[in-house]
């Protein structure tokens, strides 16, 4: 039992705490001009694009040859895309409402918050997969690998928190909202670490990573609609590239 709790602690250090640290720039972003906030949204888009490629690639690798794992990958990817889409339709949330028009201010805020929460859910599924890797390594007694994974994922996840809050940086916030987003994104790392320690399988990994990929694909589509302005194409592309480079550099720490 003590080892299980220790695995949970590893997940907290690798996922939950770094995500909350990544939320700290939120208060700084609220004080910068709107033009710079649009760059930050583009950086967030680059972060999520990188993660989408990363988690879908990992899901495909775990799915392996055609069979049950491949079916789980297809089901997970579809669920990740269409579950938030159905929730948005049910709640009548549309990212088109993000346009800056006084008459739709309430709808704009609702759409931005929904997008931010969906980013948190997508990151949470991704971090659950990372937790599986940590728990499995710890269960196998590979302490050196476990330490590398915890440190690397911690630095990696701190940048994810930064990407999560970009859509709502200009909106009035209650403290419970960023706390809830951080919990949705970071706590699954703890669950994944515990599950990976007890019973890890490629089928479970493929399912969780594919759900994460689908959810990230949904929010990427929404952020493209939010970030792209014809007069700021260069700035948008710059932000996307910077976000991808940032995730690549922190990701190196996981593979070294």
What characteristics describe this protein?
256 residues, mainly alpha, 9 helices
How do you describe this structure in short?
The protein is mainly alpha-helical and 256 residues long. The chain contains nine helices and no strands.
Structure description:
It is a single chain. By secondary structure, the protein is mainly α. It is 82% helix and 0% strand. Helix 1 (2-22) packs antiparallel against helix 7.
Query: What's the SSE pattern?
Result: HHHHHHHHH
* Largest sheet: number of strands, sense, barrel closure: none
How many domains in all?
1
- Secondary structure: number of strands: 0
**Low-confidence parts:** 95-103
Mean pLDDT: 77
Strand fraction equals: under 5%
Helix segment count? 9
SSE inventory with pairings:
Blueprint (H helix, E strand, L loop, with lengths): L1 H21 L2 H5 L4 H30 L4 H23 L14 H35 L3 H23 L10 H23 L3 H26 L5 H23 L1
């Amino acid at each position: 039992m003590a080892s299980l709790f220790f695995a949970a602690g590893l997940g907290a250090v690798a996922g939950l705490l770094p995500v909350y640290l990544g939320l700290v720039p939120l208060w700084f972003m609220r004080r910068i001009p709107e033009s710079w906030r649009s760059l930050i949204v583009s950086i967030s888009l680059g972060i999520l694009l990188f993660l989408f490629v990363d988690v879908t690639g990992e899901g495909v690798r775990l799915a392996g040859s055609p069979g049950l794992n491949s079916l789980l990958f297809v089901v997970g990817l579809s669920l990740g895309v269409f579950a938030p889409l159905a929730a948005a339709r049910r709640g009548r949330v549309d990212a088109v409402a993000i346009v800056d028009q006084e008459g739709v201010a309430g709808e704009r805020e609702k759409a931005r918050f929904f997008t931010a929460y969906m980013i948190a859910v997508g990151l949470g599924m991704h971090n659950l997969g990372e937790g599986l890797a940590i728990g499995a390594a710890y269960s196998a007694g590979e302490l050196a690998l476990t330490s590398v994974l915890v440190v690397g994922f911690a630095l990696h996840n701190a940048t994810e928190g930064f990407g999560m809050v970009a859509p709502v940086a200009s909106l009035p916030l209650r403290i419970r909202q960023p706390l809830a987003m951080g919990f949705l994104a970071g706590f699954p790392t703890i669950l994944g670490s515990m599950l990976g320690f007890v019973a890890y399988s490629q089928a479970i990994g493929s399912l969780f990573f594919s759900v994460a990929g689908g959810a990230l694909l949904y929010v990427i589509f929404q952020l493209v609609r939010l970030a792209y302005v014809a007069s700021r194409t260069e700035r948008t592309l710059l932000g996307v590239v910077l976000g991808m480079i940032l995730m690549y550099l922190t990701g190196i720490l996981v593979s070294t």
